[in-house]
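Below is a filled-in request sheet from our internal design queue. Each sheet records the structural input a requester submitted and the sequence that came back. We keep these sheets so that new team members can see what a complete request looks like end to end.

REQUESTER: design group, bay 2
PRIORITY: normal
MODE: inverse folding
CHAIN LENGTH: 177
BACKBONE (tokenized):
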């Protein structure tokens, strides 16, 4: 088990744009293995490389159908609207209802360099949009309306000022991607 520490809100690495991956090599495969260990240990259903401090366009996930990874992912089409209570391992213990497209078509590469292209719906589609946001330095609180975001930032600040482990302070909550 080679888990990473998951970076939490306030860490500047979460606000940067991750870089395209040019080499799919053994080091990248080991990174994916370690990210999956970290995700399962958290536990979460998705994890993007910047969340473990690595500025690469890569994320891993498992929505109950086994471990997956995608390199240089892009959403090429999205459709519909879906409300879902969304959380983030980098904003531990908190969640908000957020509307995003219901279906997405995502493309990228697998760890053998082969093209991946598939349609996702609901939870999986939500996960892809959330993880792609991480690769662009965007956290879920930026998907909230102004008023909700202000309240969210205040709550986060209070939890951090209190020196509390936010997960414990709020008694759990969702630990989605
Ligand atoms: Ni997240």
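RETURNED SEQUENCE:
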């Amino acid at each position: 088990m080679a888990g990473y520490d998951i970076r939490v809100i306030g860490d500047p690495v979460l606000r940067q744009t991750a870089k395209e991956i040019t080499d799919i090599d053994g080091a990248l495969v080991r990174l994916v293995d370690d990210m999956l260990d970290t995700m399962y240990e958290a536990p979460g259903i998705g994890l993007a490389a910047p969340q473990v401090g690595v500025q690469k366009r890569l994320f891993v996930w498992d929505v109950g159908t086994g471990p997956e990874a995608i390199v240089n992912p892009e959403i090429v089409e999205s459709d519909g609207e879906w409300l879902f209570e969304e959380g983030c391992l980098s904003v531990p213990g908190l969640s908000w209802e957020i509307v995003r497209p219901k279906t997405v078509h995502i493309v990228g590469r697998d760890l053998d360099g082969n093209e991946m292209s598939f349609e996702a719906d609901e939870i999986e589609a939500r996960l892809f949009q959330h993880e792609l946001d991480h690769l662009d330095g965007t956290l879920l609180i930026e998907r909230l309306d102004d008023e909700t975001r202000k309240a969210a930032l205040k709550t986060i600040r209070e939890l951090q000022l209190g020196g509390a482990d936010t997960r414990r302070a709020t008694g759990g909550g969702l630990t989605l991607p």
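SHEET NOTES:
- The domain at 6-175 is CATH 3.90.45.10 (Peptide Deformylase).
- Residues 166-175 have pLDDT under 50 and may be disordered.
FILED BY: M.R.
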